[in-house]
Amino acid sequence: MQRAESYAALAPLLSAQLRRGVVTNCFLSAEDYQRELASGLFYEQGEGFLLLFRQRQGHLLLNFYLHPDAVLRLPALRVPVVTELACREKDREAMRRAQEALQALGFAELFRRLRRTRAACPAPDIAEAADAASFEAVQAFLLAQFDPLTGCIPPDEDLRQAVDAGQMLCLTDAAGIAGLLHYAPGRAQCEIRHLAVRADCRGRGCAGRLLRMLEAKTGGQKCAVWTRAGNAPAEHVYEKNRFQPDGWSSAVLRLG
Amino acid sequence: MRKQIMEILTEICPGVDFENEKALIDDGLIDSLDIVAVVTELMEAFDVELGVDDLTPENFNSVEAIEELIESKQS
Predict the structure, then answer these.
(1) Which of A9, A23, A196, B70 could form an SS bridge with A145, CB 3.0 to 4.6 Å?
(2) Partner residue opposite B27 with nearest CB, options A12, A30, A188
(3) Which CATH number do you get for residue B54?
């Protein structure tokens, strides 16, 4: 496994994957690659495959390109690896084969996720504004509420930028952050990355308040969110706030 | 060229309104698997070389954008 030193060096490897029948879960932009290079981006290439490993705190995220004739193998890995295979119904068979190839190397499925989308809507006229919270408080809250491996917690620099950009909508009380909604803005739609309410504050409508704050902040822009399949409380909140399954689903796998 | 691009897109992603959609990538109507297939077909159909640098939403959000991309590669 080699460390990618620059995007210029990586680009030809990536371009070589654009071939008929290749299955991939990689849809990173050049900007994404630049950010990942700074955090630590490693690759392994072999007969019919390219694997990209993105460094996270204590683990790696895997993206893959698998050609139809791939003879897949993994490099020596000292930390756990997590990957997510997301697709729509029409691509499920291709992704199932990719999942089988990874499971043959020791990956195990942890859970499945479903994507829900809310259509664009009129921005609500609400007076309530999000409370301010520091980078440290936001980071501590995320680490307390989400699994460090599968919770998609951003690297420190990305998290700091999200806090500075006002993409962490918080509700606070005397004990600190009571609820948090982290979103990523987009041109056509925004995406909710994290939404959590502290255990002692649940059942009081905090999630709904945060979702309305998001609607106000984004002008009612179309919005997507991934939820773990079978998470009934989350499904209830999103259904109630007009988020409907949009046909995308995924499997989250772990090795180590 | 436009007709040929439409045929490629429709074969890979049936059911999408390619005539009118202007945010194929941004709205998730074309995903990572589709884009590899679309790029492969475009390279073969128009004898152009496309690389990872070309895979931007701006280049693939609409049929017009794809057409412009191919024309720029041919010129």
Answers:
(1) A196
(2) A188
(3) 1.10.1200.10
